[in-house]
Predict the structure.
Amino acid sequence: MAYSSQLGFQDAASPIMEELLHFHDHTLMVVFLISTLVLYIIMAMMLTKLTNTNSMDAQEVEMIWTILPAIIMIVIALPSLRILYLMDEVSDPHLTIKTMGHRWYWSYEFTDYHSLSFDSYMTQTQDLKPGQFRLLEVDNRMVIPMESPIRVLVSAEDVLHSWAIPSLGVKTDAVPGRLNQTTLIITRPGLYHGQCSEICGANHSFMPITIEATSLNAFENWSMSMLES
């Protein structure tokens, strides 16, 4: 969960988010090294006679500033392509959930459980219980089993939305008439909050997402209770 004055990302709760955090740290180190080198060259040019004719026309220098950026781009691109592949791959999911964006709430359909479906509206401030977060809590949470590959199909009924949960590394556009797909695996139990990340209208900031990760037995009990109600 995010906290006040937070500078970094939320703690990772899925393998994909862990990979994204590692890639962010990797890229940030590359940026730091480049910035340090450029600053050193600028200071050297200001304090010494570095800008002479021989150094400016040297073929070796031109080769270095052509080849070195290409190597840096490869070092950044290869891990990025690996993560993109991992994010797109869905192999034998244990559960498929269809998520629909509406103005302004989300609806969920568990297609593997006799078409279990429900709407998820934001909990009003006056109805919040102690410990719940304003603008992030919903009346019906999306409950899923942890440590299980989950496939989520995302679409919208009216306008563009975006289904995003930062701590899980998930952000998928909900486009009317189009079915997008994402996958997630939650590594530990808990509540994970997100919000619509596409400006979709007047109540854009009032359609949160709350996922509750539980054990398989607790998930089965929840699904049975939802079907009975």
In short: The domain at 95-228 is CATH 2.60.40.420 (Immunoglobulin-like). The mean pLDDT is 89. The first strand starts at residue 95 and ends at 102.
